[in-house]
Specification:
The chain is of the alpha/beta class. The chain has twelve helices and eleven strands. It folds into two domains: 2-72 and 186-267, D-Maltodextrin-Binding Protein, domain 2 (3-Layer(aba) Sandwich), CATH 3.40.190; 80-183, 3-Layer(aba) Sandwich (D-Maltodextrin-Binding Protein, domain 2). The protein has a six-stranded mixed β-sheet. A five-stranded mixed β-sheet has the order 7-6-8-5-9. Helix 4 packs across helix 8 and helix 10 (221-232) crosses helix 11 (236-244). The mean pLDDT is 95. The structure holds the ligand C=C(O[C@@H]1C=C(C(=O)O)C=C[C@H]1O)C(=O)O. The ligand C=C(O[C@@H]1C=C(C(=O)O)C=C[C@H]1O)C(=O)O is lined by residues 6, 8, 10, 34, 52, 71, 77, 79-80, 102-105, 147-148, 189-190.
Length: 286
């Protein structure tokens, strides 16, 4: 089995037990930013992976959702941020760089511009991972959408990535908070999916291992925060707050936020009409 993993710290709580050998997983783990994993799943190069929520909706016939697993927030997410020189409402006609690593956040950003900020910027896909952010000192970009670890680093004024970037932004928008303000709902950025044509027993074994690993992770957020802080240079306090604001369980309210987001994307013609289909997990065992 080939299993995808995003190397951002927001995945530590799901893979932590597996990484430490506490939960056996008979699979090869393949790391990639969300859009890389989306593409690999779309091509059948992975059996099970975390993907952008929008990747599921883009081709829901192809996938089965893994129950009880997601990356969600109910309010501020802290790692999906629009950094802007001017208020978002004034970005019409200006260049907004959107992270090429992201699919969900780009769609959410576009919905917010259309319905909340009522402005039509020019979206420019670009590299917004930490190495690129650290180097991008000067360009004609009025705002940039940054996700994952790089977004956390850019918000820490004394972090080398923020220092290297050399620019500060007077207007910073947290997309989890903006969605919550708009709809009152949690937001699901990422889901785990299996290929429909991978044997169900094999996907179930991976699912059961990821659930056990995630359960370990939820019990050890302090240890994982310390690891996240060491690996990113983001302070322990910020990593703790970050993990406290995320959830990985796909609760009922999360599902409501997910379906509301996908409903709005369907209405806008951004994803095909689809349905939710879950891997039948009754036998997964704990
Ligand atoms: C909260 C986050 O969620 C992510 C955002 C994704 C997207 O925008 O497509 C996909 C996976 C998650 O890693 C983040 O990376 O900051």
């Amino acid at each position: 089995m080939r299993v995808g993993r995003i190397p951002y710290i927001n995945c530590y709580p799901v893979y932590g037990g597996v990484d430490r050998g506490l939960v056996p997983l008979d699979a090869t783990l393949i790391d990639g930013v969300p859009t890389t994993l989306n593409r690999m799943m779309a091509q059948g190069a992975l059996d099970v992976s975390v993907v952008s929520a929008v990747e599921y909706a883009r081709d829901s016939e192809r996938y089965l959702l893994l129950p009880e697993l997601a990356i969600s927030c109910d309010g501020p997410v802290r790692s999906v941020m629009l950094f802007s020189n001017v208020p978002a409402e004034e970005l019409g006609g200006q260049r907004v760089l959107v992270s090429r690593s992201s699919m969900t956040s780009v769609h959410l950003l576009e919905l917010l511009f259309e319905h909340v900020w009522k402005a039509a910027p020019e979206f420019v896909p670009g590299n917004a991972e930490a190495d690129a952010v650290a180097a991008q000192a000067s360009d004609d970009i009025a705002a940039r959408l940054v996700i994952g670890d790089a977004a956390l680093m850019l918000q820490s004024a004394d972090h080398p990535v923020a220092q290297g970037h050399g620019r500060s932004y007077p207007y910073v928008y947290d997309l989890g908070a903006e969605w919550k303000r708009w709809t009152g709902l949690p937001f699901v950025f990422a889901v785990w999916v299996a290929q429909r044509n991978t044997p169900v027993e094999d996907s179930l074994k991976v699912h059961a291992a990821l659930i056990r690993s995630r359960d370990w992770g939820l019990q050890h957020l302090d240890e994982l925060s310390a690891q996240a802080s060491r690996n990113t240079g983001v302070s322990l306090r910020e990593c703790r707050e970050y993990f406290a604001g995320l959830d990985w369980r796909l609760t009922m309210p999360d599902l409501e936020g997910l379906t509301e987001f996908l409903r709005r994307l369907e209405l806008a013609g951004r994803v095909p009409k689809g349905k939710l289909a879950f891997l039948p997990s009754a036998q997964a065992g704990r």
